[in-house]
Amino acid sequence: MHTYRIGDAAALLGVSADTVRRLVDGGKLTAERDELGRRIIPGPALAAYARQVHRAEWGPTGSSARNRLSGIVTDVLLGDVSAQVEIQAGPFRVVALVSRESADERELEPGVPAIAVIKSTNVVVERPWMVRQDHT
Q1: Distance separating alpha carbons of residues 108 and 103, to the nearest angstrom
Q2: Are 71 and 37 in contact (CB under 8 A)?
């Protein structure tokens, strides 16, 4: 079973390490102790918590798309027919090409909140090398 240190769990949830500690102390997130006495979060517990929080946060939307990244517009490049919109959603940069008309109707400009809704038939899943594999 894969486990996560408090800081790693915080990065994956998009919160501070102190927030994760409070979640553990409050009984909302399960933690164990490793051989050195450090708190570690079991992977399945972290996944269950993330699933619970994000499903409750979004609820029904009237859309069949389930991949929703909330963020802030950081750049908009307007063309005659299309627009390139850049959104910073937590640690993730999302770039979308939309019609110029759509960008104008939504008044997209740097600084406004936006949600990137992603629906795709092809998604590549990778396991990053930077994730510590020494936790068992």
Answers
A1: 5
A2: no
**Rounded CA separation 123/127 (Å):** 13
Task: Determine the length of the chain.
Answer: 136
Beta bridge partners of 57: none
What tokens were used for 23?
Answer: 């979640």
Pure H helices in the chain: 6-13, 17-25, 43-58, 100-105
Residue 110 to residue 105: CA distance in whole angstroms: 15
Spatial separation of the C-alpha atoms in residues 95 and 104, rounded to whole Å: 17
Mapped onto helix, strand or coil, the DSSP state of residue 23 is helix
Average pLDDT over residues 56-83: 79
pTM of the model as a whole: 0.60
Residue 69, C-beta contacts closer than 8 angstroms, at least 6 positions apart: 87, 89, 90, 92, 94, 115, 116, 118
pLDDT band at residue 57 using 50, 70 and 90 as cut-offs? low
91 Rama class: left (phi>0) / alpha (psi -120 to 50) / beta: alpha
Amino acid at 34: D
